[in-house]
Amino acid sequence: MDWKLKKKYESLLEQERGYVKKVWGTYNTVCLAFPNSYRTGMANLGFQAVYKIINEQPSFLCERVFLPMSCDDAENITGSAEMFSLESQKSIAEFDILAFSLSFENDYPHILTMLSKAGIPLLTKDRMQGFPLVIGGGIALTLNPEPLADFFDLFILGEAEVALPHFTRVFEDARRLGHDRSTLLKNLQKQIPGVYVPGLYEVKYRADSRIDGFVPREADLPQKIKINHIKDINSYCTEEVIAAPQVEMGDMYLTEVNRGCARSCRFCAASFAYRPARYRSAEEIIASIDRGLVKKKKIGLVGTAVSDHPELIQICEYILAQNAQVGIGSLRIDQINEKIVDLMKAGRIETVALAPEAGSQKMRDILRKDITQEDIIQAAELLIEKEIPNLRLYFMVGLPGEEDSDIDAIIDLTSKIQHSALLKTCGKRKFRRITLSVNQFIPKPQTPLQWFALANVSETGRKIKKIISAFARDKQINVISDVPKWNYVQALLSLGDRRVGEILMAVHRLEGNWVKAFKEVNINPDDYVYRRKSLDEVLPWDMIDLGTSRKSLISEYKKAQVLSEIHLS
Ligand code: SF4
User: Fold this and answer.
1) Which one of 332, 357, 449 would you pick to mutate in the ligand 1 pocket, going by the greatest count of ligand atoms within 8 A of its CB?
2) How far apart are CA 406 and CA 361, in angstroms?
3) Which of 256, 264, 265, 395 to mutate to test the pocket of ligand 1 (most atoms within 8 A of CB)?
4) In the prediction, which pLDDT does 80 show?
5) 402 φψ region: left (φ > 0), alpha (ψ -120 to 50), beta (else)
6) Helix, strand, or coil here: 159?
């Protein structure tokens, strides 16, 4: 291992608190991989939770590896061309298990980069005994693992807290009994709910290339992969395990307060993937906060719907009473009231994020956002009145049935909020900035909007430019957005089936050149991205059962469809 890299690893570990380093010997070894930078990966609570759960198993050790970065910046580097783990600096090919944590589809190509740098065959069919078992989990895979089916030996879908300890026991037994790889995989598939071994299922296609069905390769395998959700969220504590200063929000101790959201906005993957909505008790959260306060003076409350927590006020008051600051990712607009804003102000919060999602009421109704323009303006006014100096507003464009008037509505709503800010502050400099985060709507699997097509990315890009130019001369309003090309890629990787793996292979071979890869592979990506799916077709993720009935998804889809058509007529 290169001595410069070794030094960097050592320096990172010196700055971290809470990592685990076990001495290699008889342990079953797991390398937990994050296919993006150290800075991003270490801010991910799910990644940290898996690290903790595996290291808690007495016969397992877990180390970490991140995507190698090309820049030589100590903040980002934790990998190299050779791919060594952070804790013991072992080659990742030496581990028994290589476990990827995936939250974001656009990280999929990075998995192939990491496997290839480690000298591990990319395709599961080429990975013989002696290579690590390559496994994956995370929300992106829980929604639709199929585009990665050829690269992974196994997926652990859903919430890992229950499945992981069970997985480690079956793995350990298989080792003791000397089972080969294929026996181990079959046992894992049969014994653990939420485990999906894609190689044990064949996908049948029809003559028109649509999916005909999923066929288990053996009679006693389950027809569908049923995802279990943990019932008592208080039994598991998801909080920062390793404090690392060189990461996103590194000055903040993160602790989970809730999982799932009962509001079921039609586009929201988190709401449908983590059902039902569950809230950790204030008692458990405060115990976690106490552990955090030993390390840091800022506490970040994390969850799908933090502002819906019934004891949020009490929890925030507790944090402030300890002379600490509180951070809340985003607040539900209809939950903003004087009390919560006062607490944020007392906690020296300078930026509050709100998610109107759309400018017009019709678009918000299609999304089932259940808030009015009045609610949005009232919430913004309250924040401005209380001298919160920065607002961040999230909007989506490219929604079903969207017209230019809906884009004008985003501009109009933002201008109204700014106008109100100037009035309330009498032009004084208490109010600093509105940041508009404008992103393309991407239909997500397992949600009621899954049957819709992605809007044309060039057309959506034009709409985003319209918003940018509306505020181009305004120093108080800043518009940020994703690059349209990556929205297309994200939609392809979200909505694709197993055959998309061939495109990923080509992208890898062509060093990231997607355009060339699309030309080389005999698959039409537009068929996944730009085609509205029919209600009777088999979707690539239909064999994953998250517990929401197809009937209720269809019913919600139809309501959105009717609203989008009324809008256009
Ligand atoms: S309120 Fe937020 S978290 Fe809840 S379903 Fe809607 S978008 Fe998702």
Assistant:
1) 332
2) 9
3) 265
4) 45
5) beta
6) coil
Query: HSE-up of 205 (CA within 13 Å, CB side)?
Result: 8
Please identify, by atom number, the ligand 1 atom nearest to the C-alpha of residue 332.
Answer: 1
* DSSP category for residue 149: T
The C-alpha atoms of residue 232 and residue 284 are separated, in whole angstroms, by 12
| 371 CA to centre of ligand 1 in angstroms | 12
Q: Give me ligand 1 centre to Cα 490, in Å.
A: 20
CB 304 within 8 A of CB 260: yes
Res 72: pLDDT: 42
Count other Cβ atoms within 10 Å, centred on residue 429.
7
Neighbours of 217 (CB within 10 A): 11
- What's the pLDDT score for residue 511? 95
Cβ pair 178, 532 in contact under 8 A:
no
Tokens read off for 168: 């480690």
Q: Which pTM value belongs to this model?
A: 0.94
Q: How many residues does the chain have?
A: 569
Residue with the nearest Cα to atom 8 of ligand 1? Answer: 268
Take residue 39 and report the two structure tokens written for it: 């800075």
Interval between CA 255 and ligand 1 midpoint (Å): 19
The one-letter code for the residue type at 247 is V
Whole-number pLDDT of residue 77:
45
Instruction: Select from 40, 35, 65 the least CA-distant residue to 51.
Output: 65
Helix (H) or strand (E) holding 423: helix 404-424
Q: What fold, for 251-329?
A: Transcription Regulator spoIIAA (3.30.750)
What pLDDT does residue 568 have? 56
**Checking DSSP bridges between strand 477-481 and strand 351-357, what pairing results, if any?**
unpaired
The pLDDT, as a whole number, for residue 73 is 44
- List all residues whose CB is within 6 A of at least one atom of ligand 1: 261, 263-265, 268, 270-271, 304-305, 332
Task: Answer whether 421's CB lies under 8 Å from 503's CB.
Answer: no
SS3 content of the chain, % helix, strand, coil (to 5): 45, 15, 40
- What residue ranges do the domains of the chain occupy? 3-226, 251-329, 333-568
Write down the pLDDT at residue 302. Answer: 94
**Beta carbons within 8 Å of 521's beta carbon, 6+ residues apart:** 502, 503, 506
Give the nearest ligand 1 atom to 270 CA. 8
What is the CA(346)–ligand 1 centre distance, in A? 26
- Mutating to test ligand 1, I would choose from 271, 308, 441 the residue with most ligand atoms within 8 A of its C-beta, which is 271
Residue 499 in contact with residue 204, Cβ under 8 Å? no
Which strands sit side by side in the sheet containing 154-156, from one edge to the other?
Answer: 60-66, 28-34, 97-101, 133-137, 154-156, 195-196
Please, are residues 339 and 295 in contact by the beta-carbon 8 Å criterion? no
Residues of the chain under the 50 pLDDT cut: 72-80
